[in-house]
Amino acid sequence: GFRDALNQAMDEELERDERVFLLGEEVAQYDGAYKVSRGLWKKYGDKRIIDTPITEMGFTGIAVGAAMAGLRPICEFMTFNFSMQAIDQVINSAAKTYYMSAGLQSVPIVFRGPNGASAGVAAQHSQCFAAWYGHCPGLKVVSPWNAEDAKGLLKSAIRDDNPVVFLENELMYGVPFEMSEESQSKDFTIPIGKAKVERQGTHVTMVTHSRYVSHCLDAAAVLAKEGIECEVINLRTIRPLDVDCIETSVMKTNHLVTVEGGWPQFGVGAEICARVMEGPAFNYLDAPATRVTGVDIPMPYAKILEDNSLPQIKDIIFSVKKTLNV
Fold first, then answer.
1. Which helix (H) or strand (E) holds 239?
2. Pick from 131, 156, 184: which residue ends a domain?
3. Active site includes 56?
4. Residue 171: left (phi > 0), alpha (psi -120 to 50), or beta?
5. Is there a single domain that holds both residue 174 and residue 236?
6. What is the CATH number of the domain that holds 145?
7. How far apart are CA 194 and CA 109, in angstroms?
8. Residue 190 within a domain
9. How many whole angstroms separate alpha carbon 179 and alpha carbon 1?
10. 128/204 same-domain check
11. Per the residue annotation, which of 13, 25, 56, 231 is the catalytic one?
């Protein structure tokens, strides 16, 4: 599954390059808060798998400094909500240094952990940071959906010489996925910055990332029974955005719906709509683009309210039909 793919990617890269190490809360002796680093401390020891105190600003600063000094840290946040404690290190220390040093000082670091809403953890643990980090030049921002994405993109992120924010989803950790023969290889990587068409279609383009790829595929299956063929694009990378892939699809389907779990204002969907308007695909649209997003409120705790605060399959189906005017 997804969790094992992440574990495999880290294991292979730790083995391949002795400069790679993992640090964060509960990553070592406890085997990871979500068991993503299971077995790694036992295999690699205290020097490579490091339990930190609960001080994001501290251990993120240590990790960024280590990257500047030539190591290749993987900095795990127990959730990306807690990366707010360390956002100065992520943005001002990691993201801007390569540019400010005129290319003399690279910062090869990966910031990873669960992002976006889990279940029943309320407002302070449910925010999606794709748009926040996607806003910042100097970062690469990756958002995998399935196990193959997770493995190939995490390996690319660790090998990248610049900072990568790697946004996982806690609700995907336990989901089993088929993995191709090719993805089992130690040389398997997925290039950062390339989206993937997960389902071919002719009537409408759905652009989505992370967990919501599943929702879009489920919605597409329902719509197909009604004769509506949806093309589903799994972004995989938030920054740099694969605008070419989106434009090619929109020029074919003439309709666009974006789907994400984050808030609407200045979100991933908003950016996609803007980029399509500014580019050659705009003239191909037969209807306004539509966004499906999380609701514009801090996440409620009650389950019924939480369900109504996040995009459901029915919301996606509704938006597609509205866009297609059926």
1. strand 237-239
2. 184
3. yes
4. alpha
5. no
6. 3.40.50.970
7. 20
8. no
9. 8
10. no
11. 56
State how far the Cα of 113 lies from the Cα of 125, in Å rounded to an integer.
12
Instruction: Please give the structure tokens belonging to residue 317.
Output: 């189906």
In the sheet with 196-199, reading across from the earlier edge strand, the strands are: 196-199, 230-234, 204-208, 256-259, 290-292
Domain-located, residue 191: no
Residues 49 and 155 in one domain: yes
Distance CA 75, CA 7 (A): 14
When divided into structural domains, the chain yields a total of 2
The range of the structural domain enclosing residue 253 comes to: 196-324
The position carrying tokens 């938006």 is 319
Q: Say if residue 11 is in the same domain as residue 113.
A: yes
Residues 296 and 200 in one domain: yes
Helix residue spans in 185-295 (DSSP H): 212-225, 243-253, 268-278
pTM over 0.90? The answer is: yes
DSSP 82: G
Residues 130 and 251 in one domain: no
Q: Tokens in use for 278?
A: 């500014």
Residues 195 and 142: beta-carbon distance below 8 Å: no
pLDDT by residue for the chain (326 residues), tens only, comes to 999 999 999 999 999 999 999 999 999 999 999 999 999 999 999 999 999 999 999 999 999 999 999 999 999 999 999 999 999 999 999 999 999 999 999 999 999 999 999 999 999 999 999 999 999 999 999 999 999 999 999 999 999 999 999 999 999 999 999 999 999 999 999 999 999 999 999 999 999 999 999 999 999 999 999 999 999 999 999 999 999 999 999 999 999 999 999 999 999 999 999 999 999 999 999 999 999 999 999 999 999 999 999 999 999 999 999 999 99
What pLDDT, on a 0 to 100 scale, did the predictor assign at position 210?
98
Statement to judge: residues 119 and 234 lie in one domain: no
Is 125 assigned a catalytic role? yes
